[in-house]
Structures are given as structure tokens and as C-alpha cells.
Amino acid sequence: MTAYPSLCMIxxxxxxxxxxxxxxxxxxxxxxxxxxxxxxxxPTDLDRALEAAARGFAIWRNTPAPQRAAxxxxxxxxxxxxxxxxxxxxxxxxxxxxAEARVEVLMNVGLFHFYAAxxxxxxxxxxVRPAGQRSTVVHEPVGVVAAFSPWxxxxxxxGRKLGAPIAAGCAVIMKSAEETPASGLAVLQCLxxxxxxxxxxxxxxxxxxxxxxxxxxxxxxxxLSFTGSTVIxxxxxxxxxxxxxxxxxxxxxxxxxxxxxxxxxxRVLDVVVPHKYxxxxxxxxxxxxxxxxxxxxxxxxDGFAGxxxxxxxxxxxxxxxxxxxxANPRRLEAMDRLIGDATAKGAKLLTGGERSGNQGYFYxxxxxxxxxxxxxxxxxxxxxxxxxxxxxxxxxAMIAEANRLPYGLAAYAWTSDAARQRRLARExxxxxxxxxxxxxxAADAPFGGVKWSGHGSEDGIEGLMACMVTKAVHEG
Length: 476
Known about the structure:
The protein is 38% helix and 22% strand. By secondary structure, the chain is α/β, with parallel strands linked by helices. The chain folds into 2 domains: 9-251 and 453-475, Aldehyde Dehydrogenase, Chain A, domain 1, CATH 3.40.605.10; 255-443, Aldehyde Dehydrogenase, Chain A, domain 2 (3-Layer(aba) Sandwich).
């Protein structure tokens, strides 16, 4: 059994704790018991991190790409060796099943290997000029990146925040979520153990608004990378504007799923129901609004509810558990509020709709049908284990509903009509569209949204280039 580690910050390669600092209690969401006390940064800690990152950038930007690649490859090997340890830590502090946490480690392994190769293929170009003149276009690391990540993917989010900047030759100051700190620290430790200079990547924690204001006000920081809610993202964009920071913003979503009557209903249900309740629905690309063509509606609704009711909920460390607890009490309160509002407005509760167990933050897998458009849950990202199923008459009405909200992160569609597949790919407003699949994330594919779901991409060559600036050099 993996013991939960002692908590710290990592600044300039040093593990920092104690010293009379304020602390934050990290809670196991399956039991409600405290796992440890996380030290929170004072302004002097943040200044030290900024100073170290400035030195780290001067070192790392001049480090040849093969050496950067070797560090990323080494970290990937270490994460694979430590997979079980890291996965158990993530399950203890975030709640997801151990199987999901293991996959999350493998996501990082694949991403680091991808960036290790891609950082050696950052090509510029030479422009056509008359004899005696030379013009080139080159790509250079943007500088120090302030990277903020949430608690729902406590291994994968830090991996994204660290992998691309380090591949590009940047330095990073990472603030992962205070609720799940040990997972992010474990990822960073793999990089340090693989040879990353201590000044290149820092991990700090604190009161989020204090940390973000302090870091983003510093001229040392040249880019903000943020994953989280749209509300917080808009706030951070305003702070970033004062210093004209480059930004990558991966914000909230409200995933529409269009199910047409020509789709294989049982196959669709077998895929989307487990995907809906993955990580207790606490996934930014979670399929949530099921937009079902009328002739398929009853069969899909009933099949969904039956499968959801059969999901085994429990401590993510236990064998056979299919869904763990929610990550914190705030999510329980949000579920009660949103589901209560929907049923008060006429939505039909098919299963779930209540907290479960006598300890921890468990909520039953929930299905609502015939949900009014004016219900809050149809307009606000629920970020929890609840599916919303409504019927629609035709393709045009279904696309209109999919595009109705200001969010545009991920969308899904199920149909056997090839011409319709092409129309949907073109007309759905989302940064990622899955047609007859829910598998929309991969190391080599850009991950990001449009509209209120943010801008820029992580993963893929796009994630690497987001950490670089373009320079044109003209010689006479």
C-alpha cells in the first residue's frame, strides 16, 4: 500500500516546507480524512521561484534539443517505473478509480515521449531573397511560463503544463491544485530525477488569487497557461493583459452528444455511459447533453438509465469499483442545486439524484430526461455524474441545440450516414469533435476549445508551438 507522501513546494530544486507557513489540509474524498498539510507560499517564496525561473530559462533556452529530449524521455521512463505509486497517490487525493489513475500516468508517458521527439523538429525557414540578402524565420522559447492546473486530472494536467514548455526550452512555475498536490509533485520529481536543472521548473502552492496576481504581475513571466473554469479563466486573462502575456486557456465545456436514429443504440450506450461517469463526470470534455433523435429517444433513455443504475460506486482503491467519489464537498452542493432546480422545473429523474454512503463525497450516477432548456443544468457546466437526455425532431434542431451555448470544447455525434458525418464535422462549433467515438485526446492531437471554452491548444505540435515565439531575421 502506497503511503501518502509528505507535502512541500519545490523551488530551485529544493523541497520547501515548514517555516511557519500557512497550510492547507489535503482530504481523501473517499473517507473525508486528512491526508496531509500542504505548505502555502508566502510572497518571498514566490519571489524566489521567479528568480530561480529567470535563471533556469537562461540555462534551458540554450540547452540543445537532444538534451531536452533526453530529460523528457528519462522522466517518461521513471513515470512508467513509478506508475503504481503515482496512481495510488492520485486516487487517494482526488478519488478517481485506480484504473483511471494508471491510465493517466500512461498519458503523461506518451506525451513526454512525443515532445521528446517533436522538440527536435522545430524548423524555421529561409525566405527567397536577392543575392547578398538573407531572411530567415526562427522559433524561440517564449520565456518563463506560469502554469495553473486543476484537480480533476492531478497527474495529466501537470504533465501537460510541464511537458510542452520544457520541450520548447522554457522555464515553468507550476501551481497545480492545492487539493491534489502530491500527484503534480510526483510528476515534477520524475523530471528532476531525469536531470532537469532545478531552476527550470518550480512547484508552488498558495491562495490561488494571491499566487496568480503575484506571478502574473512580474515581468519575469511571459506566458500564462491555464486549465480550469471559464469564470476563473476570464479573471486571469484580465490579469495577463496588463503585461501582454501570451496565453493558452483550456476552459469549461458542456459536451453535446448527438445521437441519430440510424446509430446502433446498444453500441452507443456501451461506449458513452462509462465515458459519462469517468472520474465521476468531473471531466471538461465529459459527454453531458444527450441530443437524441425522436425515434431513438425512448430506447436510448431507458438503456442509459439502466446502465447508469448498475454502476458500482465506491473507494477508487477497491477492486471492481467503476466510479469513485466527487473530489470535494463543493461538487456535492453543486449537484444538489442543479438537479433540484431541474426537477423543480419539470425534468424527469430516472436514477440517482442523491448523495450516497455515510462518509466521503459520493454521489449516485444520475440521469435526467426531458430537461427544460431554462433549467440551470442545461446552461451551466454540471461537472459531475449527471446525464441530460432530451429528444429532437431532426438534424437541424439537433445541431442548433449543440451550438446553443457559448461553450465549444468537445462535442460528439453518432450516426451511420457518411454525408451527415461530414456535415456535422463542419457545422458543430467545438474545438474537438468525436464522430462515432469518444476518443478525442492523443499526444499528437491538439486539445482545446473555441468560444467561452478558451483558445490555444495543448498537446500535439500546437502545444509545443504555443510555448514559442516567431522571429523574422533580415540580413543585408
